[in-house]
Description:
Elements: H1 24-34, H2 41-53, H3 57-64, H4 71-82, H5 84-102, H6 106-133, H7 140-155, H8 157-164, H9 219-223, H10 231-236, H11 244-343
Helix pairs in contact: 2-3, 4-5, 4-6, 4-7, 5-6, 5-7, 6-7, 6-11, 7-8
Amino acid sequence: xxxxSTAPPGHATAATYDxxxxxxxxADIADRLYAGDLDGFITARATAAKEAAGQDKELAAAVRxxxxxxxxxxxxxxxxxxxxxxxxxxxxxxxxxxxxxxSLDAAGLRSLARExxxxxxxxxxxxxxxxxxQGRPISGPMAADVxxxxxxxxxxxxxxxxxxxxxxxxxxxxxxxxPVDLAGAVALPGRLPAAPSFPRSTPPPAAQDTPxxxxxxxxxxxxxxxxxxxxxxxxxxAPRPASPPALERAKAAHADARAAEEEAxxxxxxxxAEAENARTEISELQQETAMLRDRLxxxxxxxxxxxxxxxxxxxxxxxxxxAADKASRAAMLAxxxxxxxxxx
Length: 344
């Protein structure tokens, strides 16, 4: 059997068996399923489960528990398998962005944010091409979900590991502050490395002086009692000027905010364009629906006419059949009479 599940707390551990162990056979089956056609996923899963049932009932049950991915997640899985170089570039960019954030490099963050926009646009175009080559073009809203997932990849190593697995089940989203929520986001989460928690862009306040904080307390000073200060003297003390580290952090935070603002405006413009495309598509579909309704109405009217004609024809056919039977009997009687008269 395979390695024990190491999924982070709170993450789904679907498709596990044998006391929580994930088997290599299950992983191989999952990889084949998630690399296949999206429309044929259910059928392929049922076939794989049936084949596995002949050897291991628990394995078959685990295969049946493998969830079908969303369209956007499937498109990302296809991109992972067909163009891993695209994801490698985005992952490397994410590492550089986190490094710039840790070093408070405001100018670097702005430059990297622009580079990320370019790489994301190219990656989404490639994902749409790969999906179309697989026979499943993706719409504008689905492409936006793909972009959101790839943006999460650049922000979070856990998200990057989930995407790299090729077994993504749903869209990922990063808020830039908290780790990306991977609960239920990937099949066989126990086969992913644990996602580390990233350091915040602002170092802990204890690492440097801050306005009004005073001198950091050392073990020696902590052991000595502090003389009480008159309240008036404490109030009159002027605030200390911001230290250079605090200023640099403020600059980095400002650069981050500006980059987020640019990203939000670009995202808004993209969504407005997608909304306009959706409105156009709706209008075209409404026209097509109206045309199909007219065709359906005409077909129903023609169907009613043909049904009435069939009923009339069937009635005439029955009458003709009865007349034929009657004529046949009359002919038989006439023939018998001829025979009788001829024998006299």
